[in-house]
Design goal:
By secondary structure, the chain is an alpha/beta fold. It is 34% helix and 24% strand. It is built from nine helices and ten strands. Helix 7 packs across helix 8.
């Protein structure tokens, strides 16, 4: 049987049907990892495409991205959240970039956003990433060759991300591990859809929880240089939120300590 070329892997919550296909304008194969209060598996064929819904009680973005990956069977997979709306020809755009750049294992695409403070970096042309280039890319921008990912044995962390012990950072950790394992990165000038931040499940602003999570992330990823990264991030986010520079540093130090004992922000708050 011929293998599927392209598949969207979407993390969602409390879905009762496949209505997200229309909401997200999906016109390709798709697998939903649905977080709910029961367990089930459904599969339907719609307009020549296959749609799977894996529903479990498992919470956490990373865990459910991993779950979607275990059910994926296409050559090229695009990670998704359920607040993305795709352009009609998303499959053509994504597959086309991989076919033009045979050496690419990971491709980063652009999405328009509804938040002027959280706009995505858009690249003027498609190119290979530079060795020391920053990777400020969320999961919904990432497309991968499934076989490359399997051979490298790369998965998403289950400690960071919405629904996990710490609120964010799973995408950055995933990309860092891909890079460490030698996967080749490319960025694309193609826009594949739009992303809404209106109902974010983890981002509640530049508040105490946010900086606590950043401190945990820097301890996990930049253990030796975390003090520098705390200073850099506190400076970079000046003017955002109501916290002072010293408060941000204090919270990030608390988050670093919390990572050692896997203490969530909620537990940290309760212990005060």
């Amino acid at each position: 049987m011929e293998r599927n070329k392209f598949e969207i892997l979407c993390v969602t919550m409390h879905q009762k049907d496949f209505s997200k296909i229309e909401e997200m304008n999906i016109r390709s194969n798709v697998t939903f990892a649905n977080q709910a209060d029961y367990t089930s598996f459904e599969k339907i064929d719609l307009d020549g495409f296959s749609a799977k819904m894996i529903t479990t009680t498992t919470r956490g973005v990373g865990k459910n991205r991993n779950l979607a990956l275990t059910y994926a069977d296409a050559e090229i997979c695009l990670f998704a959240d359920d607040d993305v709306k795709y352009v009609d020809n998303v499959e053509e755009l994504v597959v086309g970039e991989f076919e033009k750049h045979k050496k690419a294992d990971v491709f980063i695409f652009h999405l328009d956003t509804d938040d002027k403070d959280r706009k995505q970096k858009k690249y003027k042309k498609t190119r290979k990433c530079r060795p020391l280039e920053r990777m400020p890319w969320g999961g919904v921008r990432i497309a991968v060759k499934l076989d490359s990912l399997k051979k490298a044995n790369v998965w998403f962390t289950t400690l960071f991300g919405g629904g996990c012990v710490f609120p964010s950072g799973e995408d950055s950790m995933f990309l860092k591990e891909c890079k460490r394992r030698g996967l080749k990165f490319y960025v694309s000038d193609k826009t594949i859809g739009s992303l809404s931040f209106a109902d974010s499940t983890w981002f509640t602003g530049f508040d105490e929880k946010f900086y606590y999570g950043k401190g945990a992330f820097y301890n996990a990823v930049h253990k030796r240089s975390q003090a520098f990264w705390r200073l850099y991030f506190a400076f970079r986010t000046r003017g955002r939120g109501k916290l002072s520079f010293s408060q941000k540093i204090r919270l990030m130090k608390a988050g670093a300590k919390g990572f050692k004992s896997l203490t969530s922000y909620k537990e940290f708050e309760q212990s005060k």
